[in-house]
Amino acid sequence: MPRPTARTIKAATAVSALASLVALAGPAEAASARPPLPSRTDTAFQNECLTAHNAYRARHGAPNLTTDQALVAYAKQRADQITRYDGLEGTRSQPASRQYGQNVHWYRSFTPDRTASCTAAVKSWYDGGRTYDFAHPGFSTRTGSFTQVVWKGTTKVGCARAAGQGPSAYETYVVCAYKAPGNVTGRYRENVLPQR
Question: Is the Cβ–Cβ distance between 148 and 178 less than 8 Å?
Fold first, then answer.
């Protein structure tokens, strides 16, 4: 029988420690011990959000947005607040800052680790504008996300995504923050333009 080396002893010790943890936690607890994903705010995600917004804004004669890092940080904070305090249940009761506009998209999947894209989030906000009445401009809860996406006076955006295992499914929040904020009473006619 060969004599054990320091390398084989370390490997055996690591396997033994892992087996002990699994045995202590039990199989169900070990499988569910995965923490929620951190908020995603990386460059590729920001570019995806920016591209989606600007494509829809162009349809309504609104200038392109640019990414603002202060808004990215704020969106990350909001995504973390929503998942921490509201829970992963599709609710959004935490109030937003009046300094920025905000859109929130909630997505639920029964496929583990499947998260919402920013493209899908912006599309859902934009699709809310199907019932917007350009002849009688103004705010409604049904179209408020749409009007923020195409708001002409908005120049900057920052987005974040937070995801994790909810009570019955894998859930994602996409949060985008806007400056200057849209949905300002009395300013809809000049800021929410019909498609060209």
Answer: yes
